[in-house]
Write a structure and sequence with these properties.
The protein has helices at about 25-30, 35-45, and strands at about 5-10, 15-20, 50-55, 60, 75-80. It is α+β, with helices and mostly antiparallel strands and about 90 residues long. Strands 2-1-5-3-4 form a 5-stranded mixed β-sheet.
Length: about 90
């Protein structure tokens, strides 16, 4: 059995969840932000549409971008934060 590539997702209530992403390095390098959002939606269906995803200091806001562009690797930590209406967009 091969390696399972995972990320750690820190939920808005302080929960820490390991999320399985893929099985190969090639899949990991081509995985997009949208694919990550879909996996998070499966795990947190009640809040997934109301959160922003943050890695280090970067907001994962371009769904078509690969996770590798942000430097996300196996066991990286992704923080979910609630979207606040009326805030400034950068």
């Amino acid at each position: 059995m091969g390696k399972i590539y995972q990320v750690v997702v820190f939920g808005i209530k302080g929960e820490k969840v390991l999320l399985d992403l893929c099985n190969t390095q090639e899949q990991m390098e081509s995985m997009t932000v949208l694919q990550l959002r879909e996996k998070i939606n499966q795990r947190f269906p009640e809040i997934a549409s109301a959160v922003r995803l943050i890695f280090t200091t970067k907001q994962l806001d371009v769904d078509s971008e690969p996770l590798s562009k942000y430097g996300i690797q196996h066991m990286s930590g992704i923080q979910m934060v609630i979207k606040v209406p009326g805030g400034l967009t950068a």
